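Q: Could you fold this chain for me?
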Amino acid sequence: MHIWVDADACPKVIKDILFRAAERVQVSLTLVANKPLKPSSSPYIKAIQVPSGLDAADNKIIELLQPDDLVITADIPLAAAVIDKGGYALNPRGEFYTEENVRQCLTTRNFMDDLRGAGVITGGPGEFSRGNRQAFANQLDRFLTSKLK
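A: Sure. Below is the predicted structure, expressed as C-alpha cells.
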C-alpha cells in the first residue's frame, strides 16, 4: 500500500499528521504538487513536482496509483477516479469517499459549479477546524490499522 497526497491544497496540519503516520507504520507516502515541496528527510516520504496545469497532479496520481492505495484529496473528480481504479480516497476533513457517496458528491459539486457559473453566490466549505483535524487523524489511524494487520 502507498499513500498519495494531492498536496497543492492539502492543509499543512494534515501533511504533518500524514508524515507522522508514515513514519509510525513505515508506509510509503508521496506528495504530488505543481509547486516545489520540502518533504521530511524520512525514507518513507517523497515528493513529485508536476508541471503547472489543470489536473496535472491528479493525472500523475491516477497514473501511479495501484489498487488498495490511499489518496488524500478534497478533489471529488480525483476521488471518483481513485475509487474507479480500486483505491481509497480520504478527504482532509476525515470523510472517506466510497462507491456509494462519490457520485452524489460529484453531482452536487457540478450543480454548485453551474450555480456559480450563473452568478449565484454559493459560498464554500466552512473553516478547517480542530474537529476536522481530529476526524482525519482518527479515520487515517483506523484505516492504517485495518490495512496493515
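A (continued): The chain has a mean pLDDT of 88.
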